[in-house]
Specification:
three-stranded antiparallel β-sheet; 52% helix; mainly alpha; 18 helices; globular; 6 strands; Rubrerythrin, domain 2; binds carboxymethyl coenzyme *A
C-alpha cells in the first residue's frame, strides 16, 4: 500500500496521508489540503469522494460484492430474518438467542402509535403520496417523544428511540395505505412476526378473518434484508449529514425518507412498474423504449437500470430476479410485465450503449414485480424500500454519532457575479 500521496499545484508539492480500509481500499486524505494550499477538491455528486470511514457495510461494485458487517448478502437473504439483520447492522454482531429474543420483544411492545397520530393522518388528503405521509409521521415522533431531541442522550435513551422507530414504522406505513383507501386502521398484532404483522395491518379488513400467507411473509423478509443497508448512498448520506448537526434520530430519518423518495434513488421501483406498464400498453415494443433510453435528446431513462457503484452486476438484483420467479409461481400469479422486464433486460444486456456504460438491472428492476404479486399498490413500493432501509439508516446515524463526526459542510467553487452596487428598485 502507498504511504503517502503528493499533489503538485504549479511548482509546490503537498504530501497527503493515504489510508487503507479493511478490504484494502485506498483513499487519499485531503482534509488538510485547503489549510496547506488554499485549494479545495471538486467532485460534483461525490462520485469519487469518501465522506466517512464506516464499519457497517462493504460493497465492491466491480466484483458485485455486498456484505453487512462482513456477512454476504446472499447468505443473509437465504438464512436470516430481518430483525436479526437489523440487530447485526446496528450493533455489529449477530445476536445471541437471548439478545435476539429481547430485541424482538422490545420491538413488539412499541408497535402501537399514539392515538393522536390518527388525527395527523386523517388531516392528509386521501391522494397524498404515502412517502410524504411517512416522512411527516416519522418527524412527528419528535413531538410525541421530545426527550428524543437531546443529542447527548444516554445509550439507554438512544436504544429506546431506535426500538420505537423500528416498531412504529410498519404501523405508520400500513396506516398511510389504509388512509389512502379510506379504510379503518388495523392495530398491530404482536403475536405475529415483524413481516406478518405488517402484512396483516396492510390487508386485513374488519369483520373478515385474515390469515397471513407465509409465502408473502417470507418474500417480504427477503426483500427487506436485501434493502437493509447500502453504505453511503443518497438517503444514508442525508441521514448522516442531518444527524451531524446533532438533529435527532427521527428528524434525520425523516430527511432520509424524503431523499429515498426521488425516482433516481428508491423511487425507481415505482417508476419501473409504471414504465413496464406503459411499454405493455404501448404494444410491448421493448426496442422502441431501449432506443428512447439511448437518445440523448429524450429525457427517458430505463428505470431500474444503472447504478453509481455497481459496474458489473447488482448482487441484490440477481437474488430478486430469482425470487420474483419463485414467488409468482408459488402464488400462482401470471404477471405479463415480468415477461416484458425479462425481454428488456435481455435486449439491454446485448446492446452496445448499455454494455459500454456498464448499465445492468439494479435492485429496483424486479422488486416491484414481487411487491405487485404480494398485492402491494404501486405508490407503496418506495415505502417498502424505506421499511427495509431503516436499520441501515439507524446503524449509520449511530456510527456517525459514536465516532463524534464533525458537522457535514462541503465547500464550493463560486461561479456567480463579482461584487456590484445595489440599484434601487425604480432605476432597474
Ligand atoms: N438509462 C439510460 N441511460 C443511462 C441510464 C439509464 N437508466 N443510467 C445511466 N445512463 C447513462 C447516462 O446517460 C450516462 O451516459 P453518457 O455517459 O453518455 O452521458 C451514463 O450512462 C452514466 O450515467 P450517470 O447518470 O452519469 O451515472 P450516475 O452514476 O450519476 O447515475 C443512476 C446512477 C442510478 C442515478 C442512473 O443509472 C439512473 O438514473 N438509473 C435509473 C434510475 C434507477 O434505476 N435508480 C435506482 C438506483 S438503485 C436503487 C438505489 O440504491 O437507489
Amino acid at each position: 500500500m502507498p504511504n503517502s500521496a503528493e499533489i503538485k499545484i504549479d511548482d509546490k508539492s503537498y504530501q497527503l496521508p493515504v489510508i487503507e480500509g479493511s478490504e484494502h481500499e485506498i483513499a487519499v486524505d485531503i482534509s488538510k489540503l485547503r489549510g496547506q494550499s488554499g485549494v479545495i477538491t471538486l467532485d460534483p455528486g461525490y462520485k469519487n469522494t469518501g465522506s466517512t470511514t464506516s464499519a457497517v457495510t462493504f460493497l465492491d461494485g466491480e466484483k458485485g460484492i455486498l456484505r453487512y458487517r462482513g456477512y454476504s448478502i446472499e447468505e443473509l437473504a437465504e438464512k436470516s430474518d430481518f430483525l436479526e439483520v437489523t440487530y447485526l447492522l446496528i450493533y455489529g454482531e449477530l445476536p445471541t438467542r437471548e439478545a435476539y429474543d429481547k430485541f424482538v420483544n422490545d420491538v413488539k411492545i412499541h408497535t402501537m402509535l399514539h392515538e393522536d397520530i390518527k388525527g395527523i393522518l386523517e388531516g392528509f388528503p386521501s391522494n397524498a403520496h404515502p412517502m410524504g405521509v411517512l416522512s411527516s409521521l416519522v418527524c412527528s415522533l419528535t413531538a410525541f417523544y421530545p426527550e428524543s431531541l437531546d443529542p447527548n442522550r444516554s445509550s439507554q435513551g438512544v436504544y429506546l428511540s431506535i426500538i420505537r422507530i423500528l416498531a412504529k414504522l410498519p404501523t405508520m406505513a400500513a396506516w398511510a395505505h389504509k388512509n389512502e383507501l379510506g379504510h379503518p386502521f388495523n392495530y398491530p398484532d404482536n403475536s405475529l412476526s415483524y413481516c406478518s404483522n405488517f402484512i396483516k395491518m396492510m390487508f386485513a379488513v374488519p369483520a373478515a378473518k385474515y390469515e397471513v400467507d407465509p409465502i408473502v411473509s417470507d418474500a417480504l423478509n427477503k426483500l427487506l434484508i436485501l434493502h437493509a443497508d447500502h453504505e453511503q448512498n443518497c438517503s444514508t448520506s442525508t441521514v448522516r449529514i442531518v444527524g451531524s448537526a446533532q438533529a435527532s434520530l427521527y428528524a434525520s430519518i425523516s430527511a432520509g425518507i424524503n431523499a429515498l423518495w426521488g425516482p433516481l434513488h428508491g423511487g425507481a421501483n415505482q417508476a419501473v412498474i409504471e414504465m413496464l406498464e406503459n411499454i405493455r400498453a404501448d404494444g410491448g415494443d421493448t426496442k422502441k423504449y431501449l432506443n428512447k433510453a439511448k437518445d440523448k435528446e429524450d429525457p427517458f431513462r430505463l428505470m431500474g437500470f444503472g447504478h453509481r457503484v455497481y459496474k458489473n452486476f447488482d448482487p441484490r438484483a440477481r437474488i430478486i430476479k430469482k425470487a420474483a420467479d419463485q414467488v409468482l409461481e408459488k402464488l400462482g400469479v401470471d404477471d405479463p410485465v415480468l415477461e416484458i422486464a425479462k425481454g428488456l433486460e435481455e435486449a439491454a444486456l446485448h446492446d452496445e450503449y448499455f454494455i459500454e456504460r456498464k448499465l445492468y438491472p439494479n435492485v429496483d428492476f424486479y422488486s416491484g414485480i414481487i411487491y405487485r404479486a404480494m398485492g402491494i399498490p404501486t405508490d407503496m413500493f418506495t415505502v417498502m424500500f424505506a421499511l427495509g432501509r431503516l436499520p441501515g439508516w439507524i446503524a449509520q446515524w449511530k456510527e456517525m454519532r459514536e465516532n463524534r463526526e464533525p458537522i457535514g459542510r462541503p465547500r464550493q467553487i463560486y461561479t456567480g457575479e463579482n461584487e456590484r452596487d445595489y440599484v434601487p428598485l425604480d432605476q432597474r
